[in-house]
Amino acid sequence: MNAENFGSSERLVTAAYVRQGAQGRRAHELRLRALLEQGKCPEDGWDESTIELFLHELAIMDSNNFLGNCGVGEREGRVASGLVARRHYRLIHGIGRSGDISAVQPKAAGSSLLNKLTNSVVLDIIKLAGVRTVTNCFVVPMATGMSLTLCFLTLRHKRPKAKYIIWPRIDQKSCFKSMITAGFEPVVIENVLEGDELRTDTEAVEAKIKALGAENILCVHSTTSCFAPRVPDRLEELAVICANYDIPHIVNNAYGVQSSKCMHLIQQGARVGRIDAFVQSLDKNFMVPVGGAIIAGFNESFIQEISKMYPGRASASPSLDVLITLLSLGANGYKELLKERKEMFSYLSSELKKLADNHNERLLDTPHNPISLAMSLKNLDENNDAAVTQLGSMLFTRQVSGARVVPCGSVQTVNNYTFKGFMSHTNDYPCAYLNAASAIGIKKQDVDVFLKRLDKCLKTSRKESKNGKVVNEISNSNTGTEQLEDQKIEF
To answer: Which residues contact 325 (CB under 8 A, 6 or more apart)?
Structure first.
């Protein structure tokens, strides 16, 4: 409806009523105008009617939704199922062109606008979260591992002689495979134990650079967010080393946007040294479906080079999901989620420590990890080696997801590389332990139910261990009843 159509409506409906309706629509349009002009996340979240109006306006700008459109090409935005079309708000053409994921599509002005706005809004949120000097970013429809691979492949053209990637060890398969998939040889730098924490051995990093030769090293691949007792890498020191030896630096910031400490490390690293790009997951930081990531950096031209490395067009679904989410939350809503996550981390830490004390265990002291916690399972491990892994099974069958039980001495081979002590980020960590994390969206009830179920599992496991038995959780008929009892905990 435009002004002319509203004028025509006055022949059918009382003019005062039509003008009132026009004013109502104008309120929606003012929000859209502010978004288009500023390219920033609105302070307050939009209602669903405004978001749907906006998406509909974008969709009718794409050629597949033109009235009377005649398409004779091989890709004309045709969709067989109406359900699929509605799921995507009829934004069918995706994003980018064959040569650049950030390029504008002539036949899809609406989808192109969606892409540009999403990248702009996400950039605003990254700045809000703590990396104030970031200059450019884009959403890519791949998860974190493949997005890291894209960064490495882009660097290949800048450093054709390079064959190694320096990688402070973190026992997570996708970031390791990202280097292998790109065709490079990971040089694993073992962490050093400081108290309970596993920290970056910067001296070993620098020694390895000297031994291999800086020109033979593609980049340093560091990590922020991680499972305790591993803590974020010493980003500032690594950034200085990279600047001194003129070596690129790629940061795996998988779920670090939600942590002010992780974002501060990136900001400081870029200030004192060199960080070329940092990669973060959409689902882990913005509570959207799996399948997207954000590649961001401080050199606009380099981030554009990465976007041009992506072969072909791409799905718009991750961009659409995160834009809808951020428009729904608004900047204030997202900041409130960050605040709640930090509060829940403190609550989880204090309550898990009490539980650990009650079971003669210890909450490991990992003050440099702002998201993940670890509780020792030393006594359980001493009684029965199988009891540690069995505890993980017991938690899983009681519908506790996300908790990780890490035994001592596990060995695993990943792409012909053998890791001793796999999952613990080091060859010989002093004890077995259990991980729990306070991630964005967690609620107090999640913490309370987890602690209650963990307490029950520890008691049962120790009792069975003393009797030399292993609990068969699959046949435990009481599990369902216990879950219902646990759910009675008040919010």
So the answer is: 286, 287, 288
Whether residue 42 is preceded by a cis peptide bond, meaning omega within 30 degrees of 0, is: no
With contact defined as beta carbons under 8 Å apart, do 123 and 298 qualify? no
Bridge partners of 62, per DSSP, are 108
| pLDDT tens readout for residues 172-222 | 999 999 999 999 999 999 999 999 999 999 999 999 999 999 999 999 999
Dist. CA 102–CA 100, nearest whole Å: 5
Give CA–CA dist 391/443, Å, rounded. 23
Strands 136-140, 293-297: parallel, antiparallel or unpaired by DSSP? antiparallel
| Helical packing angle, 109-129 and 15-38, nearest 10° | 60
pLDDT digits (tens, 9 = 90+) for 358-410: 999 999 999 999 999 999 999 887 666 688 889 999 999 999 999 999 999 88
Coil/strand/helix, residue 435: strand
Residues 6+ apart with CB under 8 A from 371: 225, 255, 258, 259, 262, 345, 437, 438, 439
C-alpha neighbours within 13 Å on the C-beta side of residue 175: 27
CB 285 within 8 A of CB 255: yes
* CA–CA separation, 185 and 179 (whole Å): 7
- DSSP string computed for 235-256: HHHHHHHHHHHT--EEEE-TTT
Three-class SS of residue 412?
strand
- Nearby residues of 367 by Cβ (< 8 Å), 6 or more positions away: 197
Maximal C-alpha separation, the chain: 87
